[in-house]
Automatic annotation (TrEMBL):
Modification after translation, per record: Transiently phosphorylated on a His residue during the reaction cycle. Phosphorylation strongly increases the affinity for substrates and increases the rate of nicotinate D-ribonucleotide production. Dephosphorylation regenerates the low-affinity form of the enzyme, leading to product release.
Cofactor: Mg(2+); Mn(2+)
Protein name: Nicotinate phosphoribosyltransferase
Domain Nicotinate phosphoribosyltransferase N-terminal: residue ranges: 22-149
Keywords from the UniProt entry: Ligase, Magnesium, Manganese, Metal-binding, Phosphoprotein, Pyridine nucleotide biosynthesis, Transferase
Organism the protein comes from: Danaus chrysippus
Amino acid sequence: MSSGKLITQREMARQNGIVQPLLTDLYQITMAYAYWKSGKVNDVAVFDLFFRTNPFQGEFTIFAGLEECLKFLENFHYSDSDIEYLKQTLPSDIEQEFFDYLKDLTCNDVKLSAIEEGSVVFPRVPLLRIEGPLIITQLLETTLLTLVNFASLMATNAARYRMVAGKNISLLEFGLRRAQGPDGGLSASKYSYIGGFDGTSNVLAGKMFNIPVKGTHAHSFVTSFSTLDDLQNVSVTHPETKAQCNLFQLSLDWRKKLSMIIGVSPEEASDGELAALISYAQAFPSGFLALVDTYDVKRSGLLNFCSVALALNDCGHRALGVRIDSGDLAYLSILARDTFRQVAESCQLPWFNDLTIVASNDINEETILSLHEQGHAIDCFGIGTHLVTCQRQPALGCVYKLVEINGQPRIKLSQDVAKVTIPGHKEAYRLFGADGHALVDLLQRSNERPPAVGRKVLCRHPFQEAKRAYVIPSKVEHLYKVYWSEGRICTAPKPLSEVRERVQASLRTLRQDIKRNLNPTPYKVAVSDDLYNFIHDLWLQNAPIGELS
Ligand SMILES: Nc1ncnc2c1ncn2[C@@H]1O[C@H](COP(=O)(O)OP(=O)(O)OP(=O)(O)O)[C@@H](O)[C@H]1O
Ligand SMILES: O=P(O)(O)OC[C@H]1O[C@H](OP(=O)(O)OP(=O)(O)O)[C@H](O)[C@@H]1O
Ligand SMILES: O=C(O)c1cccnc1
Ligand SMILES: [Mg+2]
């Protein structure tokens, strides 16, 4: 077995079973037949996969999904039942030999070069360059796009949440129930983690991708208890003395004492909620993080939580904190923190100051920014719907365009200049300025001399003649590595935790004004002088000359 295969099996989670060659658009297969019929089996193509606009009104994107693309290439194979299905589905006059051809088709002759997963990337710079026989490289289009588009959108969304939250707030992904189906949910958990989330409530994602799984409990757990009579046998073992502590009685005693300290009457607090919290604390004495907004945070939830937390303390355990899932999260989190301070002081338990306050409920980037502006005491956000559905922008528009065939460049023209493709086999370089920030991404023809540190290079806007600048880079990063060649993974994709670190490291190379939330400055993507002339010559050659009458 090749070392590439060894690397793959050791480090990569198994690919979701629905990612397979038939997970594509029908037209890829009909085109494959037409290519085959036209004798194009030996034609060699180069495709670029890129996007044209950054999502979320931002000026950067995080590239993700590469590992899954590599697994797809590795496993690419039409099964007998796939072939059978195609025979039944395609017109009956399709030649049998085409199916024999498909049956033996693999990605062994494909070469895939890519930017490192987790990097910041920009419009027009190909994320993937796919070279190889026209038919197979064409057949890969839709699946590669579906693997990169949502992954990159999701990682970008998560990275944006991380940026607005700041590095000291913990972010948990709670979105599975609201996600675009099971696979959407699983991908959302994986790529939120890459983008900078700290954990997920999605247990399967935890198992498959080794992401920390975290969570609290739901309102239904609280509302399922109505009185203290609902409780039976509530004792907790003290971890040191091994004594059995009566959590129930201790909690009731503390509720009486505490009501004086925090000025809330025990009569107003819900007994059902207290019963629920005692029950949860009994089950998880060292992991007690309770939902406190079922009835009333101020008059019930906080009093009940603190009572049980102090009872647990008597039993030798430290509570973790609270979750607030409705109401004014700024006000209620500050109220919770003030209450914890009062308890910390009057009971001489300094750790009570540091209890975790989790906030959830329809959180998005704007809510976090607004909460920061108002002031709050939240340590952790649990975020579902807006994050996993990418509600602010539900799709990234990556496309897959033919740029060369049999050594001949190809250009796709459009009335809309932004949609004209940049032809030919190209390399991409990131040029850094003297202060260490990335200045510009430069596309060149592959036969050009690479840019070098300290050497002046002319960077041109691909379509606006007057826009050009000289750059003397202090560092040059060649953006492509070959990840797949000769039928194997030749650069091992990094483990998720490293891709996650890469995202933050890569974001640090961008100037702050490119990352800011409101009206960020666009990052420059340029072409070399040589590529500029090449594009425009080809454009002239291909644009028909109209006739005025
Ligand atoms: N201080 C705040 N500043 C800005 N937005 C906030 C603040 N507190 C909460 N929010 C947001 O306001 C919205 C409030 O949601 P909604 O109107 O459904 O109220 P609710 O508190 O959930 O009501 P209910 O008690 O009926 O569940 C949520 O999206 C929440 O994230
Ligand atoms: O609000 P999101 O960002 O999507 O986060 C996840 C939500 O899911 C849970 O409850 P759910 O919304 O199912 O019920 P609830 O509205 O009654 O809390 C949780 O309490 C959050 O509110
Ligand atoms: O664990 C939680 O608190 C949680 C999980 C999923 C959705 N809402 C909340
Ligand atoms: Mg909700």
